[in-house]
Amino acid sequence: MMVSETEVEVRYAETDQMGVVYHANYLIWFEIGRTKFVEDLGLRYVDMEDEGYFCPVFDVHVTYRRPLKYGEKAFVKTRVIEYNGVKVVYGYEIIDADGTLCVEGTSSHVVVSKETFQPVAMRKALPNWHIAYERVVR
């Protein structure tokens, strides 16, 4: 199973009054990890959009285990945990520099037409993406 890893340094602007990362910022880090995962596959979201498609989030789950603080390093590990030709579910683990699990979650996506926002089968609309995702879920 392919896992992509991205380093994120906790910035002051990402923290709340308690000095820990504000909970919604982890979703941004999920997106950073997901984008890196796609790039590691040799693909780019901008190419998908140029071909007339988007891949919006329709569901997300997050479990917070340990807070991260300003100045710490975080590592976002991203993988595909489900792909059925239409829906993609990514899994995320955010760990600290010591390897402690801080946050974990999933996000579910479906490819849609830019014009209609109707779901499309990735195997027909984006065959190179389909082949890449089939390889990483085996």
From TrEMBL:
The keyword Chaperone does not apply. Keywords: Hydrolase. It comes from the Bacteria. CDD domains: 4HBT. It holds the Pfam family 4HBT_2. Belongs to the 4-hydroxybenzoyl-CoA thioesterase family. This is Acyl-CoA thioesterase.
